[in-house]
Amino acid sequence: MIPRPNLTFAQIINMNLGFFGIQYSFGLQQSAVNPIYDMLGAQPHEIPLLNLAGPVTGLIVQPIIGAMSDKTWSPRFGRRKPYFFIGALLCSVALFLYPFSSALWMAVGLLWILDVGNNTAMEPYRAFVADKLNDQQRPLGFQAQSFFTGFGQTLANISLFVFPLLIIGKTGTLPNWVYASFFFGAVCSIGSIWWSMRTTPEIPPTPEELDHMKSTKINILSPFIEIAKAITDMPKVMWQLALVYLFQWYALFCYWQNASKSIALSIWNTTPANEDLYQQAVSWTGLVNGWYNIITFLSAFALVWFVKKSSPKMVHFVCLLLAAVGLLIFPFIENKYLLFPAITGFGIGWASMMGIPYLLVVNAIPKERYGVYMGIVNMMIVIPMILQNVTFGYILQNYLDNNSGYAVMFAGVLLTVAALATLLIRSENTEGEITISQSGAH
Predict the structure, then answer these.
(1) Superfamily in which the 9-422 domain is placed by CATH
(2) CA atoms of 364 and 295, how far apart (whole Å)
(3) Which of 29, 135, 227, 373 is the most exposed place for a label (fewest CB within 10 A)?
């Protein structure tokens, strides 16, 4: 393996800027898509099934793209870049078209296209960081992605508050501010990916790696064969992380699907049936979610220091507990300004979720299989999401009285279980052995 030199802090930022556009798009999905479903007439118990696009496309697309990118090399286009450029282009087109949805089925269909693009772009990006950085700088690289996750989603959520103040009226069935938010997202998606591609060259494979690629030609079955083989060979730490992810990601979808309606209920004492008051709740949810994403990008690099002083496992455990406490008290808050301190712990937890778990597994993965294994990590994310989509509507309707506040509390309970499951992880990389290079952080 060719030694990876230390990169400057600016180089690591440029390399990860593309995550900003990807996560702006994801932020719109978190905070804008479900209210749009509400405006187009969806019932509360239908929302989980309408969100199947993200996890299903992630389950199918990311491992396949990962396996394919492991076997790809072009002197002109690189290994990972062709995939996340195509994904970003698809995202931009879907974001541009999304506000023109005049019926629920159109919004759902475009969400499927958007999520195919997002997943095509995101998976090679994780492998791109692992390819470029040495062991010392990977924590900084993955937390840079966490920083841009928070930054991109912050702008997406704040746009839901600012644009309704500046852009009034409706076009078709949706308010005009929806158009502005999604058009801006389309520009961010392709623009930020283009910048990262322009500023960051990929490392060419060694002659031995090229020979291996040529000896294993890609065909329609090869990604599936590679995925199955990788799962068979999967290190134990990844199975342990899968248990954490089961509860963690089920919980996150419960919060994102119900945040606006929970705030509408506890602050405005209303439901989506009252369109004017509910739009106020949606706008305030954008601010609340924007705040937790501000906390995410402010705390992302601080977590690198805590990893150095402690361990990835203990950092993730504490962060999940902070997130759980915030969600458990969230539905009881009647002063809209107190929602911000309540959700702060969730922002710290989100910073950890987007970077720290990758440190738990990356050193246990062979470098020539980074792509497929990062795709399998994403399978661990999307399978709980699919379970949530197909089961939570029943739970919400039959056990939680269709009460979105109860749904957010339920998410807090699940995050507590995820934190406890984190303590079960046993890996040579979880006990403070990861060191952070200072030379690249100028």
Answers:
(1) MFS general substrate transporter like domains (1.20.1250.20)
(2) 30
(3) 135
